[in-house]
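User: Good morning. I'm curious how S-adenosyl-L-homocysteine would be positioned relative to this chain. Could you predict the structure with it bound?
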Amino acid sequence: MSTEGALFLVSVGPGFMDLVPERAKKALTESQVIVGYDLYLRWVLPWIQNKQIETFPLTQERRRAERALELARQGKQVSLVSSGDIGIYGMATLALELLKEEDTFPVEVIPGISAANACAALLGAPLAHDFATLSLSDLLCPWEWIETRAQHLAQADLVVVLYNVQSRSRSQGVYRILEILKTFKSTETWCGIVRNAYREEQSVECCKLGELSHRQFDMLTTLVIGNRFTQPKREFLFTPRGYVGWAEPSLSAQQTELPRKAVWVFSGTSDGNEIVRSLHHQGIPVIVSVATEQGAQTWREQKIPVVWGSLGRERRHQVLHQHQASLLVDATHPYASRMTLQLQQLSVDLEIPCLRYERPSTLVGDELCGDSIEKVSALALKSGKRILLATGSHQVAEFLRQDHHRQAEWFVRCAPTSESLRELEQAGVPLSQICAQQGPFSVEENQMLLERWKIEVLVTKDSGKAGGYLEKYQAAKALGIPLIVLQRPRFHVAQSYSDISALITRTQQVMNNDD
Ligand code: SAH
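Assistant: Good morning! Here's the predicted structure, ligand included:
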């Protein structure tokens, strides 16, 4: 008489014997056949001795599930095994999809500790409030879905756990997702990087969202991106639940003296500074918003109200609403696309106008241009082996990642700040290939640097007059070195100005309500 088969869909946890659920051990012990993937069977060896074991490579999930069902149909007690929780990016759903109407054998799903809660425990308690998980693998779903979901999750300020972060064939996606997250979340958001949780070679690190883009990951890594309340304590990260209130440390102390119904100028550029001074001079209430505390200092000295810091959209919304902001002026750098997007969205949400100032382009017309780092890097690599990036430090890691075969030597000129140097160090640029100096630079100074390093290609941005573009152009021309320009990101902005006085006039009109 053939006995009735059974299928156990068994979760075996992150990779540590002590975290294999009791119920999973029982199912494995009772099974005659174990179907799985080698790696995930390593920490359940004591419960699968002397059993029929069928392993398949990682990519053959469908064959694994079909085989398990087939064996159960033959009357065998079968365990189909997944790491973590078998129901979370695991095999359970595939087995259920392939289960037929006529299959009557019992099926039991046994829950386990998924990477999200294993990694969260190692980090502390980052998932204590609402959170979501997002897999960055597009093997089974279109990449656009992943981007759209990332956007919604960040917009809702959920803590996000990223699974399947990066593989050799999917090396760029994670950086795209981090960019999307940064459009809504502050670059100061606390994050955790956990690799091989509860396995040999476990590593656990905390850092800020802004730092993640310089890092490399793999398929053994899970990232936890906090919400705006997530904070560190000792070696831990935690996300408060509200027991001790919802105070946000950033900004609260700066906010006391801010005027209401003011024009908020988002600056950080010399043009922005000119706009602020002009408005202030005309007696229009103005608040400057800059990225760093260093940038805030000069405004404090001039007794002009200033706030600083990278805020997520949610928090920025709150602050502007609290102070009844009348008008937003976006005078950020032409390449500060995250900030421009955030301000455009806030303008819609808060129903207040946003005027954008964009300094005129000074492109001459005969330079080589590309509209993405990928294209610009490809052009640069085609043109020479010693490349100078005069594009600022933020995107250097991204440029270097495009040099898959390490064909070129990359040199960088950046601002003399500890943040820039840290970024370049993380990107792997040797100190001897960094020139940290404050611009503007004359044609001669540019030439000297190009000659000293025997540069063969110069890469820069369309940074206009204030960015010293023409001086770079002329230096490259004089030495016969190709110049490659990363074009500005394009935005659909309703009210954009390239003339400061026109923007000031419009600001006066809005403030006087005489539209
Ligand atoms: N069913 C599994 C997830 C499979 S998807 C679970 O519930 O955990 C595979 C991804 O999970 C990996 O790319 C990685 O992002 C994450 N992961 C699985 N085990 C992990 C571990 N021990 N440490 C860190 N991340 C892990």
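The pocket of S-adenosyl-L-homocysteine is lined by residues 14-15, 82-85, 88-90, 114-115, 119, 163-165, 194-199, 219-222 (CB under 6 Å). The mean pLDDT is 93.
Let me know if you'd like a different ligand tried.
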